Amino acid sequence: MFRSRSGVRGLSQEAPIAEALRQFGRDRAWVNEKHLELCRVGAPTFFEEKRALWMVTELTALGYVAKLDRAGNVVAFLPEDERGPWVAVTAHLDTVLAPRTGDDIRLGPDGRFLGPGVADNGAGLAGLLAIARQHALRGLRDQKLGLILVANVGEEGEGNLSWMRYLCRQSALAEQIEAFLVLDGPGVEHLTTQALGSRRFEVVFSGPGGHSWSDAGNPNAVHAMAKTIADFLDCHGRRAGFLHTRYGRSTANFSLIDGGTSINSIPGVPGRNWICGVRVLRCWMSWRSC
Ligand SMILES: [Zn+2]
After folding, report:
1. Which of 102, 169, 214, 271 has a CA that sits 20 to 30 A from residue 26's CA?
2. How far apart are CA 204 and CA 73, in angstroms?
3. 285: domain CATH number?
4. How far apart are the CA of 212 and the centre of ligand 1, in A?
5. What's the total number of domains in the chain?
């Protein structure tokens, strides 16, 4: 790993890093162009393959050995770095929302990029390409760790970070990666330097009630879910914004509810509402803590 005794400021003055920083400025138009281009290749979670192949083409053109691993993650390294150990610079490929057409991704009148996924994680992927283009960083060849670039799939929503978990645990590369730097979104205000846990839970409620007259008094999955969410947030200090638990500072967010078919019918989730004769409703909760 590249080490400097004088911290980030000192590191930025080391010759290869200083040259790379100047090069970022010179590459700005190229990076912006690639940023818009990649965002036009839609990559909603579980459907990232087109964007993954686009990244493989770009990284190959920059001189990297780039390929998809078994999970569909893009993995790239310079030919001389084939063996590791590595520091991995990663950015997730998938987005919560995808453009319907390329025209949804555009430049605003004030020069800002507009459209689904331009920030999270178009910015991270553009950063990955910008780093890949930094030939100056190759001056760090004598360092202990090589560089491996990863554009991972399955991060958002129901992807639940699953293929980053694969990279860290099951992949043949896992043991050779000694450090991670993750590029996510456009923020440059801070670096998160300690592990931030992220767990997502699918919570399923079921109950026989649903018709406003004939089922009156029977347990209703919607009522139970609403009460559970309200009680949970009240119990954990909703007004503070952050939950302070024995694990440290945490946040909880209920972000997706599905189920239900009409005002006077028993709630159900399409495809799941009649499993074993049980009517169900589900919600997703995201829990983060550090
Ligand atoms: Zn993200």
Report:
1. 102
2. 30
3. 3.30.70.360
4. 42
5. 2
Neighbours of ion ligand 1 (CB under 5 A): 120-121, 184
Structure tokens at 193: 């330097």
Q: Ligand 1: distance of its center to the CA of 162 in Å?
A: 14
How confident is the model over 115-126, as pLDDT tens digits? 999 999 999 999
As a whole number of angstroms, the distance between CA 257 and CA 283 comes to 4
> What does the pLDDT look like over 66-116, one tens digit per residue?
999 999 999 999 998 888 899 999 999 999 989 999 999 999 999 899 999
Neighbours of 243 (CB within 10 A): 20
Do residues 16 and 157 share a domain? yes
Q: How far is the CA of 37 from the centre of ligand 1 (A)?
A: 18
Global pTM reads 0.78
Ligand 1 centroid from CA 249, angstroms:
20
Domain that holds residue 280: 197-289
Question: How far, in Å, is the centroid of ligand 1 from the Cα of 122?
Answer: 9
262: CA distance to ligand 1 center in Å? 35
Lowest mean pLDDT among 44-48, 112-116, 220-224: 220-224
Q: Name the domain boundary from 156, 182, 208.
A: 182
120 CA to centre of ligand 1 in angstroms: 5
Same domain, 137 and 256: no
Give every strand in the sheet of 243-245, ordered side by side: 197-206, 280-289, 248-258, 243-245
Per the model's pLDDT, the better-predicted residue between 45 and 287 turns out to be 45
